[in-house]
Design goal:
163 residues, mainly alpha
Length: 163
């Protein structure tokens, strides 16, 4: 099969090859949480998430602080070593655990928001790139027509006798 000058010009201009990730992305959007396989893994994940959500609150930190303060009088009566041990082992571990978890939750939410914004930015850039491809394809079609017309005009000029 013979190719026309227009087809030759079109293939010489550009051949678009989409990236394989584009097709995969259209079929599988990113997921916020990946669910583990198997009943026990799902159960353990759900239980861990529930406990983390409960412990990672300021109300839990207040409750742990109150619980730790119950043993403070005995720690004071026990002397400096007992008081330091109470502060390090009881108060800091109980109370700061929840406060750190609250901070991590807030930081994680900010990270998730940035990740979603980055994904949306990439989605917009991809959309713009596809628009540019369509624009270029339209320009290529016009260039192919102009090239074909020019080639035809040259062929007619070459075949007509000189005056």
């Amino acid at each position: 099969m013979e190719t026309s000058p227009a087809e030759t010009a079109r293939s010489a201009i550009f051949t678009h090859t989409p990236h394989p990730h584009i097709a995969r992305r259209k079929q599988h959007a990113p997921k916020a949480v990946v669910a583990p396989a198997g009943f026990m893994q799902r159960f353990n994940t759900a239980l861990g998430v529930k406990i983390t959500e409960a412990v990672g609150t300021m109300w839990c930190a207040y409750l742990f602080a109150a619980l730790a303060l119950v043993s403070l009088p005995q720690a004071i009566n026990g002397g400096t070593a007992t008081l330091v041990a109470w502060i390090a082992q009881t108060f800091i571990q109980l109370v700061l655990l929840s406060i750190i978890m609250v901070g991590q939750k807030i930081a994680g939410e900010a990270t998730d928001k940035r990740a979603i914004e980055t994904y949306n930015d990439a989605e917009a850039v991809l959309h713009e790139a596809l628009q540019i491809q369509q624009h270029l394809a339209a320009q290529d079609a016009i260039l192919v027509k102009l090239s074909a017309a020019l080639l035809e005009k040259q062929a007619l000029s070459a075949s007509s006798p000189a005056v």
